[in-house]
């Protein structure tokens, strides 16, 4: 029988924690490497997709980030943070109207200053484009 510290579940948990720390330390490519076995084993886990999306976002792999955040929202439509970072991703992709929709929903679900600031910024950019 396997030692309890070397079960696949424990190893994936450790890999997830390592990837989380790497994202926080602004090492997104290293985080993606650490997260790869977890992504392969648990592709439908919202927390795994969210962390992957954050790493993709911080490494400017915006199409991958968009797919990961969209997957989180398919699995958990009530995740306001996933909506916020999807909005920021769409903003960076230049898709401001789509970004505005996601940021509005995120702010409506959780009206925190960070969401309001992002919403105001994108709103202003959309108005500039329209004029």
UniProtKB/TrEMBL annotation:
Signal peptide: none annotated. SUPFAM superfamilies: TPR-like. PROSITE patterns: TPR. The keyword Cytoplasm does not apply. TPR repeats lie at residues 46-79. The keyword Lipid metabolism does not apply. It comes from the Bacteria. Keywords: TPR repeat. Gene3D superfamilies: Tetratricopeptide repeat domain. InterPro entries: TPR-like_helical_dom_sf, TPR_rpt. This is Tetratricopeptide repeat protein. It comes from Amycolatopsis bartoniae.
């Amino acid at each position: 029988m396997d030692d309890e510290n070397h079960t696949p579940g424990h190893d994936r948990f450790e890999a997830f924690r390592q990837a989380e720390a790497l994202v926080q330390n602004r090492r997104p490519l290293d985080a993606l490497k650490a997260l790869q076995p977890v992504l392969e084993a648990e592709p439908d886990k919202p927390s795994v997709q969210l962390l992957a999306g954050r790493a993709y976002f911080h490494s400017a792999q915006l199409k991958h980030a968009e797919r990961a955040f969209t997957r989180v929202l398919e699995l958990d439509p009530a995740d306001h943070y996933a909506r916020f970072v999807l909005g920021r991703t769409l903003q960076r992709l230049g898709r401001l109207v789509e970004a505005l929709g996601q940021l509005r929903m995120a702010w409506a679900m959780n009206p925190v200053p960070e969401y309001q600031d992002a919403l105001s910024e994108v709103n202003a950019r959309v108005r500039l484009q329209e004029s």
